[in-house]
Amino acid sequence: MLSRHSKALAILTLSIAVAVGGLVLTRQVIAVAGEADAERLNRSILDYIAQKNPQAPIRAFQRFPEALVAEAQKSNLDHCLVLAQAEVESEFHHDAVGAAGEIGLFQILPSTAAIMEPVVGPFRRPVGVKLVRDVKSTRDLGDLADPVVSTRFAMAYLRDIMTRKSNVRDALTEYNGGPAGRHPHYYRMVMGTYVEILERADLRCRFRETPKPSPALTTFLIRA
Question: Which of 80-84, 116-120, 177-181, 211-215 has the lowest mean pLDDT?
Fold first, then answer.
Protein backbone atom coordinates (compact mmCIF):
# COMPACT_ATOMS: atom_id res chain seq x y z
CA MET A 1 0.00 0.00 0.00
CA LEU A 2 1.06 3.56 -0.66
CA SER A 3 2.10 5.61 2.31
CA ARG A 4 0.17 8.75 3.20
CA HIS A 5 3.04 10.83 1.85
CA SER A 6 3.10 8.93 -1.44
CA LYS A 7 -0.66 9.31 -1.87
CA ALA A 8 -0.45 13.04 -1.28
CA LEU A 9 2.39 13.32 -3.80
CA ALA A 10 0.43 11.32 -6.36
CA ILE A 11 -2.65 13.50 -5.88
CA LEU A 12 -0.55 16.66 -6.20
CA THR A 13 1.10 15.36 -9.37
CA LEU A 14 -2.28 14.46 -10.86
CA SER A 15 -3.69 17.88 -9.97
CA ILE A 16 -0.78 19.64 -11.62
CA ALA A 17 -1.15 17.47 -14.74
CA VAL A 18 -4.88 18.24 -14.94
CA ALA A 19 -4.28 21.96 -14.44
CA VAL A 20 -1.55 22.08 -17.10
CA GLY A 21 -3.68 20.01 -19.47
CA GLY A 22 -6.60 22.36 -18.92
CA LEU A 23 -4.42 25.40 -19.59
CA VAL A 24 -3.07 23.91 -22.80
CA LEU A 25 -6.59 22.98 -23.93
CA THR A 26 -7.86 26.49 -23.15
CA ARG A 27 -5.06 28.05 -25.18
CA GLN A 28 -5.80 25.72 -28.08
CA VAL A 29 -9.51 26.59 -27.96
CA ILE A 30 -8.71 30.32 -27.90
CA ALA A 31 -6.27 29.93 -30.80
CA VAL A 32 -8.79 27.98 -32.88
CA ALA A 33 -11.51 30.53 -32.12
CA GLY A 34 -9.16 33.36 -33.09
CA GLU A 35 -8.30 31.68 -36.37
CA ALA A 36 -11.96 31.12 -37.17
CA ASP A 37 -12.73 34.76 -36.34
CA ALA A 38 -9.90 35.96 -38.60
CA GLU A 39 -11.08 33.67 -41.39
CA ARG A 40 -14.61 35.11 -41.19
CA LEU A 41 -13.22 38.63 -41.45
CA ASN A 42 -11.06 37.64 -44.42
CA ARG A 43 -14.11 36.22 -46.21
CA SER A 44 -16.09 39.38 -45.48
CA ILE A 45 -13.35 41.55 -46.97
CA LEU A 46 -13.21 39.37 -50.09
CA ASP A 47 -17.01 39.50 -50.36
CA TYR A 48 -16.90 43.29 -50.18
CA ILE A 49 -14.30 43.43 -52.96
CA ALA A 50 -16.38 41.10 -55.12
CA GLN A 51 -19.46 43.29 -54.61
CA LYS A 52 -17.64 46.48 -55.53
CA ASN A 53 -15.76 44.96 -58.47
CA PRO A 54 -17.55 41.83 -59.76
CA GLN A 55 -14.79 41.38 -62.37
CA ALA A 56 -12.06 41.19 -59.74
CA PRO A 57 -10.14 37.90 -59.88
CA ILE A 58 -10.63 36.94 -56.24
CA ARG A 59 -7.74 34.49 -56.45
CA ALA A 60 -5.42 37.48 -56.84
CA PHE A 61 -6.85 38.93 -53.59
CA GLN A 62 -6.71 35.79 -51.44
CA ARG A 63 -3.82 37.02 -49.29
CA PHE A 64 -4.92 40.65 -49.30
CA PRO A 65 -7.24 40.66 -46.23
CA GLU A 66 -4.52 39.39 -43.91
CA ALA A 67 -2.04 41.95 -45.26
CA LEU A 68 -4.66 44.71 -45.00
CA VAL A 69 -5.34 44.06 -41.31
CA ALA A 70 -1.66 43.59 -40.42
CA GLU A 71 -0.49 46.74 -42.21
CA ALA A 72 -3.36 48.81 -40.80
CA GLN A 73 -2.37 47.73 -37.29
CA LYS A 74 1.24 48.73 -37.95
CA SER A 75 -0.01 52.13 -39.09
CA ASN A 76 -2.42 52.46 -36.14
CA LEU A 77 -5.28 52.87 -38.59
CA ASP A 78 -8.64 51.18 -38.90
CA HIS A 79 -8.36 48.47 -41.57
CA CYS A 80 -11.69 49.73 -42.91
CA LEU A 81 -10.15 53.13 -43.57
CA VAL A 82 -7.33 51.48 -45.50
CA LEU A 83 -9.91 49.41 -47.40
CA ALA A 84 -11.72 52.64 -48.29
CA GLN A 85 -8.46 54.13 -49.55
CA ALA A 86 -7.86 51.13 -51.81
CA GLU A 87 -11.38 51.46 -53.22
CA VAL A 88 -10.93 55.14 -53.98
CA GLU A 89 -7.50 54.59 -55.53
CA SER A 90 -8.30 51.70 -57.87
CA GLU A 91 -11.91 50.51 -57.37
CA PHE A 92 -10.25 47.19 -56.50
CA HIS A 93 -8.56 46.74 -59.86
CA HIS A 94 -5.25 45.18 -58.83
CA ASP A 95 -3.77 45.79 -62.29
CA ALA A 96 -4.84 49.43 -62.59
CA VAL A 97 -2.36 51.79 -64.27
CA GLY A 98 -2.74 55.53 -63.72
CA ALA A 99 -2.04 58.34 -66.15
CA ALA A 100 1.27 59.11 -64.42
CA GLY A 101 2.32 55.46 -64.28
CA GLU A 102 0.88 54.58 -60.88
CA ILE A 103 0.34 50.86 -60.54
CA GLY A 104 -1.89 48.54 -58.58
CA LEU A 105 -4.44 48.56 -55.83
CA PHE A 106 -3.04 51.62 -54.06
CA GLN A 107 -1.70 53.29 -57.22
CA ILE A 108 1.94 53.40 -56.21
CA LEU A 109 4.52 54.97 -58.50
CA PRO A 110 7.49 52.63 -59.04
CA SER A 111 9.76 55.54 -58.12
CA THR A 112 7.92 55.95 -54.79
CA ALA A 113 8.10 52.23 -54.11
CA ALA A 114 11.84 52.33 -54.81
CA ILE A 115 12.27 54.91 -52.05
CA MET A 116 10.54 52.56 -49.60
CA GLU A 117 12.59 49.47 -50.54
CA PRO A 118 14.94 49.79 -47.52
CA VAL A 119 11.85 49.47 -45.30
CA VAL A 120 9.67 47.00 -47.21
CA GLY A 121 12.23 45.08 -49.24
CA PRO A 122 12.97 44.74 -52.96
CA PHE A 123 10.24 44.52 -55.56
CA ARG A 124 10.17 43.49 -59.19
CA ARG A 125 9.90 46.54 -61.44
CA PRO A 126 7.31 46.90 -64.22
CA VAL A 127 8.50 46.43 -67.77
CA GLY A 128 7.02 48.11 -70.85
CA VAL A 129 4.13 49.87 -69.14
CA LYS A 130 2.58 52.75 -71.04
CA LEU A 131 -0.79 54.29 -71.85
CA VAL A 132 -2.01 54.64 -75.41
CA ARG A 133 -5.32 56.50 -75.77
CA ASP A 134 -6.30 55.44 -72.26
CA VAL A 135 -5.69 51.77 -73.07
CA LYS A 136 -3.06 49.86 -71.15
CA SER A 137 -0.20 48.50 -73.20
CA THR A 138 1.59 46.21 -70.82
CA ARG A 139 4.34 43.66 -70.89
CA ASP A 140 4.75 43.20 -67.15
CA LEU A 141 3.39 45.26 -64.27
CA GLY A 142 5.82 43.70 -61.82
CA ASP A 143 5.14 43.14 -58.13
CA LEU A 144 3.11 46.29 -57.62
CA ALA A 145 0.16 44.57 -59.31
CA ASP A 146 0.11 42.12 -56.39
CA PRO A 147 -2.44 43.45 -53.83
CA VAL A 148 -0.27 42.31 -50.93
CA VAL A 149 2.85 44.05 -52.26
CA SER A 150 0.85 47.17 -53.10
CA THR A 151 -0.60 47.25 -49.57
CA ARG A 152 2.79 46.89 -47.91
CA PHE A 153 4.39 49.65 -49.95
CA ALA A 154 1.38 51.95 -49.65
CA MET A 155 1.21 51.63 -45.87
CA ALA A 156 4.97 52.01 -45.48
CA TYR A 157 4.77 55.21 -47.53
CA LEU A 158 1.79 56.48 -45.52
CA ARG A 159 3.57 55.69 -42.24
CA ASP A 160 6.58 57.64 -43.47
CA ILE A 161 4.34 60.63 -44.20
CA MET A 162 2.70 60.31 -40.79
CA THR A 163 6.06 60.73 -39.06
CA ARG A 164 5.86 64.30 -40.34
CA LYS A 165 2.10 64.75 -40.48
CA SER A 166 0.30 62.89 -37.74
CA ASN A 167 -3.05 64.28 -38.84
CA VAL A 168 -4.69 61.60 -41.01
CA ARG A 169 -6.28 64.20 -43.27
CA ASP A 170 -2.93 65.83 -44.06
CA ALA A 171 -1.21 62.46 -44.45
CA LEU A 172 -3.80 61.13 -46.91
CA THR A 173 -3.76 64.40 -48.83
CA GLU A 174 0.02 64.20 -49.25
CA TYR A 175 -0.19 60.50 -50.15
CA ASN A 176 -2.37 61.34 -53.11
CA GLY A 177 -1.22 64.82 -54.13
CA GLY A 178 2.35 65.13 -52.89
CA PRO A 179 3.69 67.54 -50.23
CA ALA A 180 1.79 70.42 -51.83
CA GLY A 181 -1.52 68.57 -51.39
CA ARG A 182 -2.73 69.26 -54.91
CA HIS A 183 -5.96 67.28 -54.47
CA PRO A 184 -7.65 68.26 -51.17
CA HIS A 185 -10.86 66.51 -52.27
CA TYR A 186 -9.10 63.13 -51.99
CA TYR A 187 -9.53 63.01 -48.21
CA ARG A 188 -13.27 63.67 -48.53
CA MET A 189 -13.57 60.85 -51.05
CA VAL A 190 -11.77 58.38 -48.79
CA MET A 191 -13.78 59.39 -45.74
CA GLY A 192 -17.04 59.23 -47.67
CA THR A 193 -16.25 55.66 -48.68
CA TYR A 194 -15.12 54.88 -45.14
CA VAL A 195 -18.45 56.02 -43.71
CA GLU A 196 -20.25 53.63 -46.07
CA ILE A 197 -17.99 50.76 -45.04
CA LEU A 198 -18.70 51.46 -41.38
CA GLU A 199 -22.26 50.32 -42.04
CA ARG A 200 -20.94 46.81 -42.69
CA ALA A 201 -20.87 45.05 -39.31
CA ASP A 202 -19.24 41.97 -40.87
CA LEU A 203 -16.13 44.01 -41.69
CA ARG A 204 -15.56 44.65 -37.97
CA CYS A 205 -14.24 48.15 -38.28
CA ARG A 206 -12.35 49.47 -35.29
CA PHE A 207 -14.46 52.62 -35.16
CA ARG A 208 -18.19 52.11 -34.98
CA GLU A 209 -20.76 54.55 -33.65
CA THR A 210 -22.00 53.50 -30.23
CA PRO A 211 -25.70 52.64 -30.46
CA LYS A 212 -27.87 55.23 -28.76
CA PRO A 213 -29.94 53.89 -25.84
CA SER A 214 -33.66 53.69 -26.38
CA PRO A 215 -35.81 56.51 -24.90
CA ALA A 216 -37.28 54.09 -22.35
CA LEU A 217 -33.85 52.99 -21.20
CA THR A 218 -32.67 56.60 -21.01
CA THR A 219 -35.67 57.53 -18.84
CA PHE A 220 -35.04 54.56 -16.56
CA LEU A 221 -31.36 55.49 -16.12
CA ILE A 222 -32.22 59.11 -15.34
CA ARG A 223 -34.82 58.08 -12.73
CA ALA A 224 -32.42 55.55 -11.24
Answer: 211-215
Q: Please spell the DSSP secondary structure of 163-213, one letter per residue.
A: TT--SHHHHHHHHHHTTTTS-THHHHHHHHHHHHHTT-GGG--S--PPPPP
Q: What are phi and psi of 86, to 5 degrees?
A: -60, -40
103 bridge partner residues: 97, 108
List, in sequence order, every residue forming a beta bridge with 43; answer none if it has no partner.
none
> pTM to 2 decimals?
0.76
Secondary structure of residue 131 in the 3-state scheme: strand
Summarised one tens digit per residue, pLDDT across range 179-205 is 887 788 999 999 999 999 999 999 999
Burial (CB < 10 A; 0-12, 13-18, 19+), residue 164, is exposed
Q: Among 116, 53, 62, which Cα is nearest to 86's? A: 53
Contact yes or no for 64/146 (Cβ under 8 A): no
* Residues 94, 147 contacting (CB under 8 angstroms): yes
